[in-house]
């Protein structure tokens, strides 16, 4: 079956760095997406990886290892506004997104 | 402002009633999607449409129907609501279904409670 695993909740300190991991098992693979979702709001697109390696976008970076079925989202210089849920989604061979349950990130001052 | 709108924002509905959730996008995207989001679960695809005039079933289609008469609108209908359909419903759209890196953009959601 198809499955996405990511931690339910993480806590980090303002100004620090946090890494949110995601492992996936899908029928075929056409890339890995990360979305941010603030409480009560819609998910918003953060990043897309299809090749192995690190993609950097300002304070946020995303990494992919296709051979390990593994990705992570790295958030640097954490700010209080980064408190949100982070959703990992893998695109399968039918170009459908398979979603993880999300990781709730709590930032403490 | 370009994007996706959904209506209503929230609704409390008696079980057995019929309800249509509305979704409109003005980005001229080819594909549209309906998801439900429940606590502790990932987004689950209900129905999708890759282009106007066509629809497909997602992971959890039972109890729901959709239509895609034109590019912009993609209503979701609950023919006879049941309490298990209490959820937050998100509509999304994307430009190039069937291509990798096709990014989905989400509407603000409809919070539905069925009593």
Describe the structure in your own words.
The complex is a heterodimer of chains A (109) and B (115). Chain A has 109 residues and is mostly beta strands. Chain A has strands spanning 3-5, 9-13, 18-25, 32-37, 44-49, 53-57, 60-65, 70-75, 84-91, 97-99, 103-108. In chain A, strands 2, 4, 5, 9, 10 and 11 form a six-stranded mixed beta sheet that branches. Chain A has a five-stranded antiparallel beta sheet with strand order 1-3-8-7-6, with no helix packed on it. With 115 residues, chain B is mainly β. Helices cover 0% and strands 44% of the residues of chain B. Chain B has strands at residues 4-7, 10-13, 19-25, 31-37, 44-49, 56-57, 64-66, 76-78, 87-94, 105-106, 110-114. The N and C termini of chain B lie far apart (35 Å).
Task: Give the gist of this structure.
The complex is a heterodimer of chains A (109) and B (115). Chain A is mostly beta strands. Chain A has strands spanning 3-5, 9-13, 18-25, 32-37, 44-49, 53-57, 60-65, 70-75, 84-91, 97-99, 103-108.
Topology, please?
The complex is a heterodimer of chains A (109) and B (115).
Chain A: E1 3-5, E2 9-13, E3 18-25, E4 32-37, E5 44-49, E6 53-57, E7 60-65, E8 70-75, E9 84-91, E10 97-99, E11 103-108
Parallel strand pairs in A: 2-11
Antiparallel strand pairs in A: 1-3, 3-8, 4-5, 4-9, 6-7, 7-8, 9-10, 9-11
Chain B: E1 4-7, E2 10-13, E3 19-25, E4 31-37, E5 44-49, E6 56-57, E7 64-66, E8 76-78, E9 87-94, E10 105-106, E11 110-114
Parallel strand pairs in B: 2-11
Antiparallel strand pairs in B: 1-3, 3-8, 4-5, 4-9, 5-6, 7-8, 9-10, 9-11
